[in-house]
Specification:
The complex is a heterodimer of chains A (about 170) and B (about 575).
Chain A (H helix, E strand, L loop, with lengths): L2 H6 L9 H5 L1 H4 L1 H6 L9 H14 L1 H7 L3 H5 L7 H15 L7 H18 L2 H16 L8 H6 L8 H5 L2
Chain B lengths: L15 H6 L7 E5 L3 E7 L4 E3 L9 E2 L1 E3 L6 E2 L16 E3 L1 H4 L7 H5 L6 E3 L8 E6 L2 E5 L1 H20 L5 E6 L5 H13 L3 E7 H16 L10 E8 L4 E9 L2 E10 L3 H12 L3 H4 L5 H21 L4 E7 L5 E7 H7 L1 H18 L8 E5 L6 H11 L13 H13 L12 E3 L5 E6 L3 E6 L7 E9 L7 E8 L8 E8 L11 E8 L5 E8 L11 E5 L6 H12 L5 E3 L2 H4 L1
Parallel strand pairs in B: 1-11, 11-12, 13-18, 15-19
Antiparallel strand pairs in B: 1-2, 2-3, 2-4, 5-6, 5-7, 8-9, 9-10, 13-14, 14-15, 16-17, 20-21, 20-23, 22-25, 22-28, 23-24, 25-26, 26-27
The chains are: A mainly alpha (about 170), B alpha+beta (about 575).
GO molecular function, one term (chain B): ATP-dependent protein folding chaperone
Keywords (chain B): ATP-binding, Nucleotide-binding
Family (chain B): Belongs to the heat shock protein 70 family.
């Protein structure tokens, strides 16, 4: 097996996962994204504004560079714990490799959903994450690329939120 | 002749006629091979049904007799008497022996079984043999299991009127990945493909999830969450799981397990009844085998009776002038096995801690397995979980196999118009998986109780200046020191360009897919470089066969710390 195929098969490597651009579930997301109700977390107002802006410029690019964990689960940033859990279960019922219709992409998709869920379901991690969104949008130019994205991108050099969560 | 026994006419690519006879030709069946008993269940299109053998039994004894030219298993074999299993010709408890080396205490304890288990204590597979015409005929646990599985498969094919190839098999939580490969090997010998291996309590969890789904008609994925603890104590293994269930989705929060079970209770009581048991049977002649058999049957009966009576009279003539005539009461039995019961308690507490669940938040406590009738077991589970009542909606002996059959239908892509199969188990890893670093430290990459499928990675670096190669040794287990864990395999990253220590970035990525296949990917990249120095390595683990203890020692002896790796500090910043 060549290095290229190993690298592109890696979910953290491919910034533009097919699951996010082609899956029906995720396509419906932008709408949810635009009407954030009751921002419960301190930084959410700012970051959601940021995100809305970047999303509206070019959906494709937005998906490429910054799909938030909230977008992955298809929930607003103000979602309650119960809503997060329920969204996770609903997605698992369609995306888990045991039950998914399209087996090939489902593993990667499920791993992303699971990563998003494990961050957002933990109040501390969620607060940290919300702050990261805020910070990242301010320092988007000065951010140092982590070591792995240098060789893994095979052309793409962007990071995404899921990869950050894996550390 | 013997080889023929392994191959049931394997026609998964069969005629159109056979395929059309069943609407779901490829539904995997559920198989629960217990240390002592075994059962098969399948999805019949509307519900799970257990298969019965020709003697109308749902539970079949797990053993194989090497009496005649062709070995026969306990699926259909009619035993003239219980003692026939104990004549030296029958091999059983293969689930306790499979994939273990002869330094394992479990193998040593198995020397009390009435067939030959010989150890050399050097970390290789034990010698196992059955007495056939006054000769010890050697076999392996894999072979015994395969013979048994062939019989099961033949039975299922006759009754289902279709070829059976895919199975979902339940396994103990504490099985190492090496043991799993031995189980898969036995299945392959029997012409079966393992679609899923389910830790036993997770199969029970799936059945529980279905029952909850039926009870509350709610939408998929929503509804109130129920947290259950499942305690499964069988003849060979004890497992615990904590599961969070809602809308048919069973998420395994934590798993714990150990190789303790009814077999240990039996052995402890045998030694209590006959303290010089071990020296008495050391020569392993035909008479000794008979003594072992007689004592075993008598003790087994006594334990069964003690589940319903306060005390039991044991009368057994071992035929060598030794007669055992003793009344054993329940307290005595519990005292003799105190360590086992304490271990069980520990497993429950550990599993609750790992799941971060307080006993007050448990909605249900489910007790299953062959030992669930023992009053002490019931009481200890109730005690730790602080509750008066246990969940009673589940058959203690059939739950695991029914769950496996449900998983078989779900994983085969079958859907049910009434929603009975709108189910999903999100499995968790039972053990940490990681690599050796800094000498003999175990650095986990995938932590135990992580949801599967999963992919995690960690960046390591060199420990010497200009270190040209790095050794990636993969282990599985809970211990901090590598030697106490199971080695899964090893490979070398070569061609690291000359650089000061701590500079090259060695990425190790671990990937477990939904069918529990572990792949390890690794490669090196130099700071500032866009691409890896050499192609990444991808290794499917485990790769080691017998004697994994040896490999670790040999690697250490040959390379010392020359090819060591250490965790790259920048990992910790994230």
């Amino acid at each position: 097996m060549t290095s290229a195929s190993i690298l592109t098969s890696h979910p953290l490597i491919s910034p533009l996962s097919p699951s996010f651009t082609h899956s029906g579930d995720h396509r419906q997301l932008p709408a949810t994204n635009l009407r954030f109700s009751k921002p419960r977390v301190t930084s959410s107002a700012t970051s959601s504004a940021e995100k809305t802006r970047s999303y509206s410029t070019n959906t494709f690019q937005a998906a490429n560079t910054a799909v938030s964990l909230y977008q992955i689960l298809g929930i607003p940033m103000g979602a309650t714990g119960v809503e997060i859990k329920s969204a996770y279960r609903k997605l698992a019922r369609t995306c888990h490799p045991d039950v998914a219709q399209v087996k090939s992409a489902s593993t990667e998709e499920f791993i992303k959903i699971k990563a998003a869920y494990s961050t957002l379901s933990d109040p501390e991690k969620r607060a940290d994450y919300d702050r990261t969104i805020f910070r990242r949008h301010r320092s988007v130019l000065s951010s140092q690329e982590p070591a792995y994205s240098r060789f893994r991108g095979s052309g793409y050099t962007s990071r995404n939120w899921e990869s950050d969560q894996c550390w | 002749m013997a080889e023929q026994a392994y191959t049931v006419a394997s026609d998964s690519e069969t005629t159109a006629e056979e395929k059309s006879s069943s609407p779901f030709p490829e539904i995997a069946i559920g198989v629960d091979i217990g240390t002592s008993q075994c059962s098969v269940a399948f999805w019949n299109g509307s519900q799970v049904e257990l298969l019965k053998n020709t003697r109308n039994q749902k539970m079949m004894r797990s053993y194989v007799t090497f009496k005649d030219e062709t070995p026969t298993g306990g699926v259909n074999n009619q035993l003239s008497h219980e003692y026939e299993v104990l004549s030296g010709a029958a091999i059983f408890n293969m689930k306790r022996l499979i994939g273990r080396v002869d330094t394992d205490p479990v193998v040593h304890a198995s020397k009390n079984l009435p067939f030959l288990v010989q150890t050399l204590d050097i970390g290789v597979r034990p010698f196992i043999a059955a007495l056939v015409n006054h000769m010890w005929r050697s076999t392996t646990p894999e072979e015994v299991l395969a013979i048994f599985l062939v019989e099961l498969r033949a039975m299922a094919e006759v009754q289902l009127k279709r070829p059976v190839r895919n199975i979902v098999l339940t396994i103990p939580v504490s099985f190492s990945r090496f043991q799993i490969t031995r189980i898969e090997r036995a299945c392959a010998m029997a012409g079966l493909h393992v679609l899923r291996l389910m830790p036993e309590p997770t199969a029970v969890a799936l059945l529980y999830a279905q029952e909850q789904q039926v009870n509350v008609h709610e939408n998929m994925g929503s509804g109130s969450e129920k947290i259950a603890l499942i305690f499964n104590m069988g003849a060979g293994y004890t497992d615990v799981a904590v599961t969070a269930t809602a809308g048919g989705v069973s998420q395994i929060k934590a798993l714990a397990g150990a190789t303790i079970g009814g077999e240990d209770l039996l052995q402890n009581l045998m030694h209590h009844l006959l303290p010089d048991f071990d020296s008495l049977i050391s020569s392993r002649g035909i008479n000794e085998i008979k003594i072992m058999g007689l004592l075993r049957v008598a003790t087994q009966d006594a334990i069964h009776k003690l589940s319903y009576e306060e005390n039991v009279q044991i009368d057994v003539d071992l035929g060598n002038g030794t007669k055992i005539c003793k009344v054993v009461d329940r307290t005595e039995f519990e005292e003799v096995n105190r360590a086992i019961f304490e271990h069980c308690e520990k497993l429950v507490i550990q599993c609750l801690n790992d799941a971060k669940v307080e006993v007050g938040n448990l909605n249900d406590v489910i007790l299953v397995g062959g030992c669930s009738n023992i009053p002490k077991v019931t009481n200890l589970v109730k005690g730790v979980c602080k509750r008066q009542e246990l969940y009673d909606g589940i058959n203690t002996l059939e739950a695991a196999v029914c769950g496996a059959a449900l998983e078989g239908a779900v994983a085969s892509g079958i859907s049910d118009p009434f929603g009975s199969l709108d189910l999903l188990t999100i499995q968790a890893t039972p053990l940490n998986i990681g690599v050796r670093a800094d000498g003999n430290c175990f650095v986990p990459i995938i932590l135990k109780n992580t949801a599967m499928p999963v992919r995690k990675e960690l960046v390591f670096t060199t420990v010497h200046d200009n270190q040209p190669e790095a050794l990636i040794v993969v282990y599985e287990g809970d211990e901090k020191v590598v030697e106490k864990n199971h080695m899964l395999g090893y490979f070398k990253i070569t061609g690291i360009p000359p650089a000061p220590k701590g500079n090259p970035e060695i990425t190790v990525c671990m990937d477990i897919d939904a069918s529990n296949v572990l792949r390890v990917l690794a490669g090196v990249v130099m700071p500032g470089a866009q691409t890896p120095v050499n192609p990444f390595m991808e290794v499917r683990m485990p790769t080691v066969d017998d004697g994994h203890g040896w490999c670790g020692e040999a690697l250490l002896r040959t390379y010392q710390t020359n090819l060591d790796v250490t965790v790259l500090q920048k990992n910790k910043l994230h």
